[in-house]
Amino acid sequence: MTAWTRLARVHPRLRLLRPSRNCLLVQSRDDLDAFARFYDAYSDRVLRFFARRVLDPEVAFDLLSETFAKTLEQRQQFRGNSAEEEQAWLFAIARGELSHFWRSGKVERSALQRFAVTVPTLDEAEFERIEALAGLSAVSTALRAALATLPHDQRVAVELRVVRERSYPELAAELGVSEPTARARVSRGLRRLAHALAPEGLLEEIA
To answer: What is the pTM of this model?
Structure first.
């Protein structure tokens, strides 16, 4: 018989407060393996949330990293007792990080710095996976309408990458530039588009 069971027998109300076995964030207070499971359970959902709003895989991944670093740092403050509550708490932190990004134009890295975590550079496969999570093709109509506002080099790069679905090696070859240059043009173009589309609610169709 566990200590909790003995207490619950004496104080039946405590049964209502017992942490749910499904609440990984509560478990993670004393077990970092539980936090790893928490990350596995929700990371793709949070990454998709960011990618669909900033349209930039690198920024989305940076936001994801800071969000989970803050969640790990603040997990003792969580007062929920269910999977639904831990998800809501996580996304509240994610929305705060997104709001900071829109206000400042950069990703906050305070928690990552406190943990001395270096965010890894994304490879081609991870770029493509995040773009697929974002479902950029779902907003192709809105993207086409906004493309005219971009500088020529960024517009062409975004059209080739998003609309015509060229790989980065193909994109670089077609533009006659290096892959890092092609990637940078797409990244800058998508950031401009995200800022242009988000305030008008044009990204809500893929929310």
So the answer is: 0.67
